[in-house]
Amino acid sequence: MSTHPAPPEVPAPGVLQPRSGAVLTTDRTGRVTFFNRPAERLLGLSDELLGRVLWDAVPHFRTTGVNVACQQATTTGKPTGFSVDWPRDQRLLRIQLFPVPTGMALWFTDVTGRQRRAEETAAENTAAKYAERIVELTQALAMAVTGLDVVNVVEDHAQELFGADAVSFWCRDEEHLDSFGNAGNSPEFVNRMMGALPPPFDQCPAGQTLIERAPTFISSPAEYIGRYPHMADVPTVSGKQAWAFLPLLTSDRPIGVCIFSYGRPHEFTPEERNLFTVLCGLIAQALARARLYDAEHRRSHELQRGLLPRVLPSLPGVTTTARYLPAGDGAEVGGDWYDVIPLPSDRVALVIGDVMGHGLREAAIMGQLRTAVRTLADLGQAPDELFYHLNSLVADLGDDHFATCLCAVYDPTSRLCTLTTAGHPPPVIVHPDGTHYFADLPDNPPLGIAALPYETTTLELPEGSLLALYTDGLVQGPSGDLDAGMAELSRRLARTPDPASTDLDTLCGSLLTDLSGASRFPDDAALLLARTRASAPRDIACWQLPEDPKSAGQARKHVRDQLTAWGLGELAVTTELLASELIGNVIRHARGPITLRLLRSRALICEVSDRSLTMPRIRHAADTDEDGRGLQLVAAVADRWGARYTESGKCIWTEQSLTDPDAGV
């Protein structure tokens, strides 16, 4: 039968599946891909025509000029119509040509008879009106990206094309229909339909439409109630009085229903029914494409959110907030990232970076870099050493990958901030008195470009200073002028009323809004804001000790006296033990002078520094060994311990949790 799908080499179109009117479709080369039974009867066609060039298989289409008209319509992309005397039986046919994404749709109408001239004129007027509007709709659907875009496009054209008051989309989920988009129907009605127990799938108009794979037209409430008496309340509750249910099919698979509703009774003319039928495929293809985009978009951003910190830590040395915004097209996951990493002794590392490019591979590299930064920072690597290892990691990925990165390590006990960059824009720094500037950073190359030593810069920051770390997507804007964007960011931060106390979440949101304007950022954008806090001098105690075995006893006394003054006498015994073991380790295996420091914060921190670069390691002492158990004891007593390099040697630190951090304050 003529409505069978075309041979495998000629795909059957998903655009047109009419059930009335004589319609024939071709692909872009003129090969016949579909014709329905009315076309078969009217034109005397057979199944052998499928897959063949129309005007070669049926010479009448060449002699009547149809081939030329099709070529012109394909070139201009505009519909056209004309009448021809069909040589086969001398009938007068009105032929309308509609360029569609898959090729050409030909709509045939027999206008033979006494009134053929009048009918031809009326058909021309109607076809011209609908043709122009359907081309506009087709073009708008082709531009729709998301499912919401498709809903909005159909809604915008529903009144003009059909006089409909409302449009709703329902997507099929097994034997249920879920609301996908709605315009013109009250939210109360949609919620009621979603919440009510649905009738059997084959006993509601939307379900029947999908089962039969053909439009359902209901012209009045009486007709609706007569056909579906078990749903007699729908016309009253919805406030609608006529409906067109269109099946949405892709590759002969039903994906949902589009419903046009009218606030008054409406008789659907044959022309309207044909037009609705044509729209089924157009809307279905656009919606299927949009839903694929929506699903990919959702997965991309779930991946992006999974690779970024879900919650920034609450730390004694800084208050932070951050935002990430995908590029305006939102099509792919990006490589921008940020992190806030707690370090020993209340220090903190603020990190932001940008892997060049978009896509899953770039996102994977971003995840690797963020993990590597955290791991190296936890191991006590200084920023310049950390960047050296990061550069090796990116270089091993190949010549076509590189990344920029900025790391700021802030120490609240000294108010010193050490910054290292790898080709990344410098942070904006705003002092509490309003002084603002870009940090003067060394000219280091991006990661993955060259194996060079990375230089650092150290700044002293007043308490309450504001740091803004960002990626280039935030400041480049549509013009791509990085310098102008950085200057604008600096000006807006300088206008912050009180940098030392302003709400960072509010400030972050206003900066993103102001810098993006009415449009989305053309590239991924990340912004990390941090406000510094200094440790109170009363919470720091420090002593210089000689390289002498007696230093362990002196250290125990200093610890006992200081913890008593802080009201932490219950930790005196364990802290004395830790301090004496660490100082004993320096005397036996390192070299002085020795510095003992206690910090009272959210934990009690005990530090012992020396001039040796040899890092301690836990030994597995045998039962007969007389020493080698000191660090094992430290690890058993302290909640956390570790070591890091300093400018003059190394520092071994321990932490003990405070049940009441404010005790003794």
Features:
5-stranded antiparallel beta sheet; alpha+beta; disordered N terminus; 19 helices; Beta-Lactamase; elongated; Phosphatase 2c, domain 1
- Reported CATH architecture of the largest domain: 4-Layer Sandwich
Give the tally of β-strands.
25
Strand order, largest beta sheet: 2-1-5-4-3
Distance between the first and last residues' Cα: 91 Å
CATH topology of the largest domain: Phosphatase 2c, domain 1
* Unreliable sequence segments: 1-19
Overall structural class, as computed from helix and strand content, comes to alpha+beta
Q: How many whole angstroms does the radius of gyration measure?
A: 37 Å
**Could you say which overall geometry the principal axes of the C-alpha atoms support?**
elongated
CATH class of the largest domain: Alpha Beta
For the record, the count of structural domains works out to 4
Walk me through what this model shows.
By secondary structure, the protein is of the alpha+beta class. It has 4 domains: 22-140, PAS domain (Beta-Lactamase, 2-Layer Sandwich), CATH 3.30.450; 147-300, Beta-Lactamase; 308-532, 4-Layer Sandwich (Phosphatase 2c, domain 1); 537-657, Histidine kinase-like ATPase, C-terminal domain (Heat Shock Protein 90), CATH 3.30.565.10. The chain contains 19 helices and 25 strands. The strands form 5 sheets. It has a 5-stranded antiparallel β-sheet, sandwiched between helices. A 5-stranded antiparallel β-sheet has the order 7-6-10-9-8, with helices on both faces. α5 packs antiparallel against α6. The longest helix has 38 residues, at 270-307. The radius of gyration is 37 Å and the shape is elongated.
